TrEMBL record, chains A, B:
Top EC class for this record: oxidoreductase
SUPFAM superfamilies: ACT-like, Glyceraldehyde-3-phosphate dehydrogenase-like, C-terminal domain, NAD(P)-binding Rossmann-fold domains
Pfam family, one: ACT
EC number from the UniProt entry: 1.1.1.3
GO molecular-function terms, A-Z: homoserine dehydrogenase activity; metal ion binding; NADP binding
Segments forming domain ACT: 352-431
Annotated catalysed reactions: L-homoserine + NADP(+) = L-aspartate 4-semialdehyde + NADPH + H(+)
Active site: K207 (proton donor)
Cofactor(s) required for function per UniProt: a metal cation
Protein name per Swiss-Prot or TrEMBL: Homoserine dehydrogenase
Ligand binding (L-homoserine): E192
Superkingdom, natural source: Bacteria
Biological or metabolic pathway of the protein: Amino-acid biosynthesis; L-methionine biosynthesis via de novo pathway; L-homoserine from L-aspartate: step 3/3; Amino-acid biosynthesis; L-threonine biosynthesis; L-threonine from L-aspartate: step 3/5
């Protein structure tokens, strides 16, 4: 018999990431006593369908009996990888109340019910870790909570969805349309059959809610996040962005300006010289700006079997170490402030506008006039040669309050010389 | 009186970083109870010269009495920022033996006496944290020890010295010579009056010893690191590198290949498309490759008053949290393996060679013959037009064992048609 105590772990879910976690824990079995002073063993894996074969997971650990896990006093850590809000929420709450520690990758759940879960963990003096919920394998949650804890963080931003980054990379590098790029992403398994959560920015929005909550020490939930997807982005927008020296990315940007938070996800133009402009394919990257550290960037694989398992097993090792030192719950909820969200209209951004206009004199003057009257000043403008009586006017504005831009857009909508406001895309600027 | 316990801290050294740490702790005073459940106060700052004014540090906390700190039972954390091996080593050992926790940024000390210090920490069940020793404000030590703990890490590499990165950036972007770039770096305060530790690669070598020890779970000390500086790099090398699509950087590369470690620092050519090629000026960046996470990159400011203070205060907060939960020493030495170093001659690298040769027929055949006879195969070659009877031959080899390259270089040294082997620079290749 081993001289080490064995820590028993239950895994909820045996999908791609679950399989990766099981295999990675097996792979590291021999080293666990050196790493955490105990042996670590996944003894039960909760699945819906016991009949289905799970590659790499022996069938004897499979179970469909949650009660058997929650009432098993030997199991001290539960890893939740089922996804979705229910029954994951109930299971995690029950596990914490039963005195078990929890590791989860569930961003949907955390972005909505984070506070409830953190409070349950705190009440029960247990760990609730979720490094894998944001940025896959990239260490970002723990660095924010620990390494950068001395900072007042004013911005967290980045590329936090690999599917859309793959699609935009293909549109940029190969000139593909959105639909073609999506189909290829689906074929390669980067996008799901129903791609809504990715391409509409919902997944990125949930991750930004989690990042903002930790960075600003104030609870931000998914409903606080202003979310816009990439389905309306055209190859033309990307082409024109290039002409202005920009690259188009789906960016999450969370800011704390004088105690007012602003958290959003939308397609944005970013200078092509910015390090994020070269984060391509399914890679993710997160920038953090703090008053002491200045800029720090974290980059890596934002999804996938083993990168995500890397984050989960890192948390698992951390929980096991806490158990050995009897200090579970050591780092709990860090939302000790209560900042408010900035009202949407007050946000100040720079924009790229693409207008389809009639090919006649006075158009530029008319457009410039409307923008000027609404306090929107123009930074750059390109008028494209007309084809069949229709021209394109591309404008990059200076920073403007969103409500002023919206006023101008409404007037454009009523002007006969403007056939269509084809694109309104935010241009990323540093605060 | 506050309802919170006060944790008293002593700071050793009041230089640039020491001043930054003092100011940052003051700036965060009000938030400390929320962050760590206690108040945090630097009550003593050890300096050599009590008369010297320290901007931002009140004179009443200054002391030149180490005995007064080590015997002060109220001080539970010592932050060592004096630098150098002695007396820092003795002070840290005394502090640990006296039951105090230690935070240090001292890479020179850790790279030589890391084991002794870690053992003292372990023996006394105290924390010894050193996030600031590598990469300034960039979180890298804790991510390696915790977030990536589930990985078998096979490579850690990157730009870990800001001074040389600034110099090489200026040489690359402005075409300056090494001497001019060094002078400008000194003028701006990026380089010290005696720049040896930076430009000869010693500072980077110490950091790589620390990173390799943590990544590979095996003790690597500075003497194990193969170190080469940038003093012999010329504007011409950088120009030719560009022609081949490379950028010249001072890179630290640590690898674990089948249980044999190889740790070195030298000027290297890296493909200009590689993310590290665009890490410029005084920025640092570290790449990590693990079997689960694949590639992860950490980037930020590698030095400076507040970036370094960010790392120190992050450690300080972590120690304070451990004290509150009575779990100091929770993450100690992780060198639980005992891997050996790969013998120097067996390392296999790709090289850039710049030869000054006589302008006569048969030169290329002669050079190619010597390389071929020594098992060095040629990947690319450029012959530059001759000036005054002297030509330049630039060769990029395939991967070759160092000893075979050295044999060829020895023969070149004896060939009259070869005036000089002007440059032998490693080309970075992924394992």
């Amino acid at each position: 018999m081993s001289k080490y105590k064995e820590i028993k772990v239950a895994l909820l879910g045996a999908g791609t990431v679950g399989g990766g976690v099981y295999k990675l824990v097996e792979r590291r079995t021999a080293e666990m006593p050196d790493k955490v002073g105990a042996e670590l063993k996944i003894t039960k894996v909760l699945v819906k369908n016991l009949q289905k074969k799970r590659e790499g997971i022996p069938s004897e650990v499979l179970t469909d009996d949650w009660e058997g896990i929650i009432h098993d006093p030997e199991i001290s850590i539960v890893i939740e990888l089922m996804g979705g809000v229910e029954p994951a929420r109930t299971y995690i709450l029950q596990a914490l109340e039963a005195g078990k520690n929890v590791v989860t990758a569930n961003k949907d759940l955390l972005a909505e019910h984070g506070q409830e879960l953190m409070e349950a963990a705190e009440r029960n003096h247990r760990d609730l870790c979720f490094e894998a919920a944001v940025g896959g394998g990239i260490p970002i949650i723990r660095p924010l909570k620990e390494c950068l804890a001395g900072n007042e963080i004013t911005e967290v931003m980045g590329i936090v969805n690999g599917t859309t980054n793959y699609i935009l990379t293909k549109m940029t590098q190969e000139g593909w349309d959105f639909d073609d790029a999506l189909k290829e992403a689906q074929r390669l398994g980067f996008a799901e059959a129903d791609p809504t959560a990715d391409v509409e920015g919902l997944d990125a929005g949930r991750k930004m809610a989690i990042l903002a909550s930790i960075a600003f020490h104030s609870r931000v939930t998914f409903k606080d996040v202003d979310v816009k997807g990439i389905t309306k982005i055209t190859a033309k927008d990307i082409q024109y962005a290039k002409e202005f020296g920009y690259t188009l990315k789906l960016l999450g940007v969370a800011r704390n300006e004088e105690g007012k938070m602003e958290v959003g996800v939308s397609p944005m133009m970013i200078p092509s010289t910015h390090p994020l402009a070269n984060v391509n394919d399914s890679f993710n990257a997160v920038f953090v700006h703090g008053d002491a550290v200045d800029d720090a960037m974290f980059q890596g694989r934002g999804a996938g079997e083993f990168p995500t398992a890397s984050a989960v097993v890192g948390d698992l090792i951390s929980v096991a170490r806490d158990m050995q030192y009897d200090c579970c719950g050591r780092i709990g909820c860090s939302c000790y402030k209560n900042l408010s969200m900035k009202p949407a209209g007050e946000a100040r951004h720079k924009y790229f506008l693409r207008l389809i206009v009639e090919d006649r004199t006075g158009i530029l003057a008319g457009v410039a006039g409307v923008l000027g009257n609404n306090g929107v000043s123009i930074n750059q403008v390109i008028q494209k040669p007309a084809v069949n009586g229709v021209a394109e006017l591309v404008v990059i504005t200076d920073k403007v309050e969103t409500r002023h831009l919206n006023d101008a857009m409404m007037i454009f909508g009523e002007m006969s010389m403007i056939r269509e406001v084809a694109s309104v895309i935010r241009v990323y600027t540093q605060k």
